[in-house]
Amino acid sequence: MQIPSGVEPIVADRTDPALKEGKRNILGFDREDLKAALAEIGVPEKQIKMRTTQVWHWLYHRGVTSFEAMTNVSKDVRALMADHFVIDRPQVVEAQYSNDGTRKYLIRFADGNEAETVYIPEEDRGTLCVSSQVGCTLNCKFCHTGTMKLVRNLTAAEIVAQLMVARDDLGEWENPTEGRRVTNIVMMGMGEPLYNFDNVKKALEIVMDEEGIQLSRRRITLSTSGVVPHMERAGQEIGVNLAVSLHAVRDDVRSEIMPINKKYNLEQVLTACANYPGAHNARRITFEYTMLKGINDSDADAKELVRLIRKYKLPAKVNLIPFNPWPGSNYECSEWAQIQRFSDIVYEGGISAPIRTPRGRDIMAACGQLKSASEKKSRAERDREAAAAAAGVPHMEASDSALGWVTG
Ligand code: SAH
Ligand code: SF4
Hints:
This protein has 408 residues and is of the alpha/beta class. It contains 12 helices and 14 strands. The protein has helices at residues 31-40, 48-61, 75-84, 156-169, 197-208, 228-237, 251-257, 266-274, 299-311, 336-348, 374-390, 398-407, and strands at residues 6-9, 24-25, 85-86, 91-97, 103-108, 114-121, 126-129, 133-134, 152-153, 184-187, 220-224, 241-245, 285-291, 316-322. The protein has a 10-stranded mixed beta sheet with strand order 1-4-5-6-7-10-11-12-13-14, covered by helices on one side. The longest helix is centred in the last third of the chain and has 17 residues, at 374-390. It is elongated. The N and C termini lie far apart (48 Å). Iron/sulfur cluster binds at residues 136, 138-140, 143, 145-146, 191-192, 225, 245.
């Protein structure tokens, strides 16, 4: 199939008006939620277990969008569910197709906030890059998302929904177990997943469920900028592969480009990596290292990277990411020859260090280029707050509430 390139606006507003009538969206429920919901609407106690299994299968294995389609569920129960619930996908406001096959979806949630999701097809796999927050609190200097204020955490339902709409677009529900197009998930979109721990955990549990979407934990990678207190917990409770955004081998440089380093420094991050449950050679930790010209890309940096990985005895590989520029960014990508030198030095140290080919650059879908329009909304909100403040109304600034996630 020839993959179209350019912008493909998806015009259908799929927000179900029933939501406005107070019906709840069943999509994004985990098994416990579903059981409780069925009991609540009056499904007889002795049927709950069976109905939960059936509805779960239709929702997450077959991807149906109506209760009507759940043909092995009795008519009465289908009608009951339709009276109380909807199966609602968020709206895809825009789908952009890159000439390399990458697809970027701008997804608008019920409250109008937006986040981006990227599908990256490769020869042997198809990876979906999923967002965990609208914006990000962490302001890494080289990252476009970092220029947004955090608007809010995404709910578990909204995280799962990103996969659902991608699978809709890719026509993947027809034959749910064969010829999969989304084979892997990386939590590497907008936001810091470990600052939205509970929702990310719940979403990934839904995605990994063996009677639903059935993605193995080995095919899921969570990327963190190094939120040390939650790293071990992520290993224990979610158990997916870990990627850590390292980007520098000295504290002064890392603090400059990633302010979170002032809170959790290199030593703490690397110690947390060494303690990550299940990190052995078969499931190595991935260190992401964005190549910034003149900042972190010297031969000495490469040697220090090898020394550190050895010092902490880390089963690790390094992904070298050529810096992806965005409008207004203050960095340049390292020279190609230097990226290769860097990679060679790390390889010579016995550590795999592939250079990641940028994908979807033409549609601004590459690493660190994601940024939705939701910031404008927060700016408008700030304007309203400023107006309220001027009128003497006490208020809390958006940044204060965002800080709650960081410190809370
Ligand atoms: N918030 C998570 C996921 C981020 S995106 C984290 O920081 O780990 C995936 C990777 O892209 C991260 O390693 C991130 O630091 C890196 N990145 C961000 N901006 C980039 C840019 N402009 N060019 C290349 N890589 C970038
Ligand atoms: Fe946030 Fe990750 Fe971007 Fe840093 S690199 S600002 S943690 S999304």
